[in-house]
Structure formats: structure tokens, C-alpha cells
């Protein structure tokens, strides 16, 4: 039988309880959260706001809270995510050694992408680790690569329904379709300061045992260090890395 820790932190325990409730039972209001935990509404509001900040929760239009991107990803088979990450770490390090730029591994859940591994390069001016971060799929190279693996019907089913979060950015679907056609043709996606000012990234997909795109690898660098002449070298190294990861899977 599990025993509570001798020096447990109540606020952490409360936040974890709320995260589990959101994932298992569904949306909660501040009042319901306060009643469930036996705390003041102000305390419940602070806890839920922190979960939103860390992408464990999202606030709905009716001001209730639901499970966020992190918990949606957790709903997937965790062993699958762990297997992909384990398979990628060695090739990611080899990729960084070859290009001396930061490399990341990403997976997609719905309309968002989460960075599940990141290996930084040794240069003083570099893109830092993005591990654990969540971005809209259409804003990052890995997301574009994984969206490009969808059919037009699957893409429409993904983006045409209105988002539960009114603050969620919606892409221009016809424009996105055009971009994805280019990604399908070339096999790579290029992000020229699209998701973050001063950062350029190039991404390529990772295929699973069934031949489906299960993840993506990106190389990110400061924009001052990027030139189109580097694309051949970057794509060649990316291809070696993604093929190595796919072979391990």
C-alpha cells in the first residue's frame, strides 16, 4: 500500500489531483475544483491557472477547465512514446555531432506538437532545449511534416471543427494545404522564423513499423547561421538520422 510522503507539498498534491481529475473525469469549474479539494476558490483558481500555464489544462469558453495538450499526449500509450524517444536519442546525438546545431524529436497529438527529446549543440550561440514544450502543429517543422502525412479529408476533419479554446490560433486551411503539398513533395519542412523570431528549423519525418509517420526530427539554428547553401548538408544529415530511428523502430 502506498504511503503519503513524510514531507509532502500540499499544493503539488492538489495540482496532481486536479490533473488526474481533468484527464479521467472531464471538465471542472473553479467551484467544483475547490469543493473537490476542500480549498478556497482563490486557491483552486491559482492551481488551475498554473496547470494552464504548463499545458496540463485549457480553459473553455464557459470558463470551465479541461485536459490540455500534455494530458492528451499522456492518454496515448506511454510505452510507445518511450520507445520512440529511446530509439531517437543516439541518432539525435549523431545528428548534432554532424551539424553542430540543436536537434529535437517531436510527436503530434491532434492540432498540437510536443517536443519529447532535445539535444543541444556546443556552440555558444545556439537554440536551447525545447523538451517538454507544446506548439501548434502548423507552426513548427515537425508538425508540418506530420500534418503532411494526412489526407485532405483527415486534415479537414482535424481543423474544420471550432476549437474549444477561443484563443487557439487557426491556420488558413487552403494556404496550409498548399504548404503541405510542398512538404509531401520534398519530404522536408522549412521554418524561417515562423514559430520563433531569430530561429530557423528544418524537419523530416520518422516512420513506424507500419510505414506511418509517427514522429519528426528537426534541426534548429539561429537565423544568422542559416543560408540556403546549408540545406543540402542539413537534409542529408536529417535523412540519415530519421532513417536510423525508423530502422530501430
Polypeptide structure, described:
There is one protein chain. By secondary structure, this protein is of the alpha+beta class. The chain is 45% helix and 20% strand. The chain contains 9 helices and 8 strands. The chain has helices at residues 10-25, 30-37, 41-53, 69-74, 78-99, 141-148, 152-159, 173-186, 231-248, and strands at 57-59, 65-67, 102-109, 112-119, 134-136, 188-192, 199-207, 213-222.
**Percentage of residues assigned to helices:** 40-55%
Q: Cα distance, first to last residue? A: 36 Å
What form results from the Cα inertia axes? globular
Can you count the beta strands?
A: 8
Number of helices: 9
Secondary structure class reads alpha+beta
Mean pLDDT: 88
- Main beta sheet: strand number and arrangement? 6 strands, antiparallel
- Based on CA atoms alone, the radius of gyration comes out at 20 Å
User: Residue ranges: pLDDT <50 for 5 or more in a row?
Assistant: none
Listing every helix as H and every strand as E from the N terminus to the C terminus, the arrangement reads: HHHEEHHEEEHHHEEEH
Strand content: 15-25%
User: Strands across the major sheet, in which order?
Assistant: 5-4-3-8-7-6
Amino acid at each position: 500500500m502506498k504511503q503519503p510522503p513524510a514531507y509532502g507539498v500540499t499544493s503539488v498534491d492538489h495540482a496532481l489531483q486536479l490533473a488526474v481529475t481533468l484527464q479521467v473525469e472531464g471538465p471542472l469549474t473553479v467551484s467544483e475544483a475547490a469543493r473537490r479539494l476542500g480549498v478556497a476558490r482563490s486557491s483552486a483558481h491559482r492551481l488551475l491557472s498554473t496547470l494552464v500555464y504548463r499545458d496540463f489544462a485549457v480553459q473553455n469558453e464557459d470558463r470551465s477547465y479541461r485536459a490540455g495538450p500534455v494530458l492528451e499526449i499522456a492518454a496515448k500509450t506511454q510505452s510507445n512514446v518511450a520507445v520512440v524517444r529511446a530509439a531517437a536519442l543516439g541518432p539525435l546525438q549523431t545528428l548534432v555531432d554532424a551539424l553542430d546545431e540543436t536537434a529535437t524529436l517531436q510527436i503530434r497529438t491532434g492540432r498540437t506538437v510536443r517536443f519529447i527529446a532535445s539535444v543541444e549543440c556546443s556552440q555558444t550561440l545556439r537554440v536551447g532545449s525545447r523538451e517538454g514544450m507544446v506548439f501548434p502543429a502548423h507552426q513548427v517543422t515537425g508538425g508540418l511534416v506530420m500534418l503532411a502525412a494526412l489526407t485532405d479529408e483527415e486534415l479537414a476533419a482535424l481543423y474544420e471543427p471550432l476549437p474549444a479554446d477561443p484563443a487557439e490560433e487557426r491556420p488558413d486551411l487552403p494556404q496550409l494545404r498548399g504548404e503541405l503539398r510542398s512538404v509531401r513533395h520534398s519530404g522536408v519542412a522549412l521554418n524561417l522564423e515562423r514559430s520563433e523570431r531569430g530561429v530557423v528549423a528544418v524537419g523530416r519525418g520518422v516512420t513506424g513499423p507500419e510505414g506511418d509517420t509517427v514522429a519528426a526530427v528537426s534541426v534548429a539554428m539561429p537565423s544568422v547561421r542559416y543560408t540556403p547553401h546549408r540545406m543540402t548538408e542539413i537534409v542529408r544529415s536529417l535523412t540519415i538520422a530519421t532513417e536510423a530511428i525508423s530502422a530501430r523502430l
